[in-house]
Design brief:
The complex is a heterotrimer.
Chain A: H1 3-39, H2 61-67, H3 72-103, H4 109-118, H5 128-138, H6 144-168, H7 173-180, H8 185-196, H9 198-214, H10 217-222, H11 231-237, H12 247-279
Helix pairs in contact in A: 1-12, 2-12, 3-6, 3-9, 6-9, 7-8, 9-12, 11-12
Chain B: H1 2-21, H2 27-56, H3 62-100, E1 103-109, H4 118-131, E2 135-141, H5 147-156, E3 163-167, H6 171-176, H7 189-193, E4 210-214, E5 219-223, H8 224-230, H9 235-240, H10 242-253, E6 260-263, H11 272-275, H12 299-313, H13 326-331, E7 335-340, H14 344-352, H15 356-359, E8 360-363, E9 380-384, H16 391-401, H17 404-414, H18 421-426, H19 433-442, H20 456-471, H21 476-490
Parallel strand pairs in B: 1-2, 1-3, 6-7
Antiparallel strand pairs in B: 3-9, 4-9, 5-7, 5-8
Helix pairs in contact in B: 1-2, 1-3, 2-3, 20-21
Chain C: H1 2-5, H2 11-19, H3 29-60, H4 80-87, H5 89-120, H6 127-139, H7 142-152, H8 159-166, H9 180-208, H10 212-221, H11 225-236, H12 238-254, H13 257-263, H14 274-283, H15 288-313
The chains are: A mainly alpha, B alpha/beta, C mainly alpha.
Amino acid sequence: MSVTIRKYWRKIEPIAIYLVLAFLLVVFLFPVFWMITTSLKKEEIFFIVPPQWIPKEPTLEHFQKVVSADWFLTYTKNSIITTGVTVFATLFIAALAGYSLSRFKFRGNRVVMLALLITQMFPFVMYLIPFFSIYSRLDWLNSYHSLVLSYMVIALPLAVWLLKSFFDSIPVDLEEQAMIDGATRMGAFFRVVLPNVLPGLIAIGMFTLLIAYDEYMFTLTLSTQDEMRTLAVGVASRWIGLFRFDWGGLMAMATIMSLPIIALFLLLQRYFISGMTAGAVKG
Amino acid sequence: MKRMTLILGILLIAVLVLTACAPSTVDDALAELEAEQAALQNQLEEAQADLEDAFESGSEDVTALEEALAAAQSSLEAAEAAADEAAAAAEAAEAELMKEEPIVLKFANWGGTEEFTAALFQEFIDGFEAEHPNVTIESVAIPYPDYIPQLTTQIAAGDAPDVMQSYVLYSPPIQGMGALAPLDDYFTQEELDDIMEWNSGIYPDGKLYAISWSPGVAVMHYNKEVLDEAGCGPVEELAEDWDLYVECLGQVAALGEDMYGEIIMGDKDPTNYFWDFYFMNGWGCEIWDEEGNVVINSSECVEWAEWMKEAYDNRWISQGVGASEVRNTFAIGHGGFFLDGPWGPGVATVLSGRDFWEWGGVMEWPRFQNGERLIPTSTHQLMMSSQSEHPELAAEFIKYLLSEEVQLAYYEGTGMMPISVSIWETNEALQGSDQQQVRINSSAEYVKNPPMGATWMVASDFIMGGIQEIWDGANIQETLDRVKANVETVSQ
Amino acid sequence: MDELDNKSTSARERFALKLNLGDRIPYKTGEKILAIALLLPAFIVMIFVVGYPLVYSIRLSFFERILTQPKDIAPFIGLQNYIAVINNPGYRESWVLSFQYVFISTAISFIIGFGLALILNRPMRGRTFIISLFLIPWLVPSTVTATLSRLLFSPQFGGINLVLFQLGIIDEMLDWYTSPSLALPAILAVNIWRSFPYMLVMLLAGLKTISHELYEAADIDGAGWVGKLRYITIPSIRGIIGIVTLVSIIWNFQQFTTIYIPTKGGPSTATTTLAINLYKTAFYGFDHGKAATMGTLWLLFLLGFSALYLRVFTRRE
């Protein structure tokens, strides 16, 4: 590549990149844009042809409908509790297990890994009846623990796998150094290794959060009473029915469900990045 | 004296009988009562002894007699008071007993999940609980699209709800699983005769497994404004002349690229039979013949399929409009005709933002060119679980839901038509011609559903798949042959 | 550490020495207990919750259990379910569809995710914000995505048709979900849209673990971006790529709501993947024996596939 082209390229490179990113963002965020504008439209104009891009007369009636529904606070509370507990429990358990699998060489290592993943390779739909049957007999239907356990079943194997691979990419020298300096294995783990996989932890925490927050099938089956249902069930079941397909309400609730998560990720993203620049793996 | 003794004796017996008759169900209360009786007996015997003494003493001493009488009287009063107490104690005991056994009855329904009906259903439940203080109705609200899978799960796990809302499509598989208890014992023939379409709940073994709750017969709705714009003739004529009807469909479609003549479901939903399959009747096409053979690939069916293809291409029927859009599409005026259950006007009003009767109406069912007038139904029903621990209570709840009170509340709140013939005949609000149209449609001579057995959902899936392929241009005979082979795999 | 000072050593060599992939600390005997103890919570959860249902379901595949044909004892029928299922053309068709759906979905979302991760891995203004924006498709609940896609791909009211039409790419409204040739691309697009952020996140985190010094050394050696990609980036995170894509594959097999809600497996059987087919067998046809069979076959395939796939990606050099 000739020197002049390279110079030229270096000048416009940032701009070019921003342009590409902007274009991609427009394409990828279009559906979300549609979701938000639909939630602001009056019902009569949902289905006019051609559809209005941005409603001329926006209305907040759908949002009011959602927030004032008598089940809304209950569902929100349940979502927060089940999601929060799932994330912390999963991260904790998965970090321990992932570390063990990464550092300790023992015969069944690969078998253990596959064994964990086996449950993911079997259709979740088939678990519905056995789960319901077992929890029914234990009288754990309509409870937080049945939901958290179900979410963990989905999230844990992946979390362990992914964390293990993050641990793998941290050289062993770090712990060895710490242990030479007098730390115990677990001390080294908490003080030296974990901070380095923080980005991985946060990423997998996010993943787990979404799994728990989003989960519909098991929640619907195991929580037959309204008091124990979550937002995920609410968004799907309250607006889609025999008589009515309430697009406005559905989109409004979808927006309400998504915005806090987006905000949360925005906050965590800063932490994620700062964690990087502070303690990234160097030589 | 002798008379006095006689009176006292009778009174004693009376008191004993009273105390014995007081309802007593608890052993403790019984023991108490027996003790009371023993005490009473003693008192009266003492009174009698006093009197006899007084008598034997020969004294016609009035005071003695008066005293004896007074003693006897006070004993009597004591006995009566004791009897009252005993009765009160027995009642309290029974109330205690009932409180010790609170009963939870589970009621599966989709009404509780939909804005349209949720508040009403809660009212129904509250009403029943008010009448039965020891009973709690737990509403197992399952969203309509997940209804069968969820119920299946609960039944398979042995934890079925006691009472279930259902309709003609959902009941056969549940019954096929042996999950339903027959309802014959709980209804007299009189009660049944008062319920429209009650025989839709009778199964091959002759028993009644599902009782109709609301007529779900199809009513042909039309959009006045659209038909006027399209220049169609009066609906009375269209209902009698198939060619005129089809011509109107074409005129409506000509109004624009996004206009459809009759709006039907285009996606693979088990409810398709309601919108799509009834056309088969116009050509004498059957899915199964009398012996149970699959004959969906007969020449009549080919003719029917050819018409379906032509109608699709010309937009006489809607293209690709799915379950989530059918009602919306009609409500915004993109179609001339739309069949829906009797709740149609209510839903259309909500969706269009205007009163349905301003822009639309209902008409008599169009007669096919072969003279047939056959209408599908999706009657809502109530069923009882065979696993229920409280069958009598469940039956009582079902009857409560069928009561006039509940039916009228249902109608006023949602437009769901009542199911009792007696209400239809007497209630003023239902005498309008439009409402009566529903009733006419419901009469047995017009109603025809495909024979929906336990495997209907799979069969319907194959058939609808075939229709979609035909709409996409596949060879009709070949496609129907394949559909026949597939349906055969699930036919008994 | 001395090797770094020797600038004549090639980047590749340096990389191989630095990364220590495959090194394990040989544990002291006391630590064996620790190793198992760390694993225990995970295993307790999995076995306790899923162990029985999994075993029960696999066992069920050898029995005849059709809910609408109840028998007092579900008869043991050996491999009959398997024979019936494998001979069913619809079943084979759903495997083909699943393959198409899963692999195309994973491949394209990986390409998009990786590309974005590479672009976003460099310092730039507003980077955090931009990354969060790209995550949004992932954050929308899956049931919402499914119904939203119904709306967007609707021939009459859909935004997608509108945009394409106004851009002049199409000249008439397309029937996405009712046309057998368009339905699969439509649901693929939805799934790719949903899953590329996951790839982005995982790969970005993985890229972060690559030491800057490697790149600096490569710069000094005069490597271009292609060279860096081939010799540093991809080999460094090969393990992570393998696992992340494998997880994506396994998950895509499970995808249900994003397909079922818009198309219900239609039109005809154009989008009836294995997951949909199984669901319909269990909940429309009520044949749980066959459903269990389909599940077990699915499991066996994925087991074998995963073992092979991992072998490729986590080979020690």
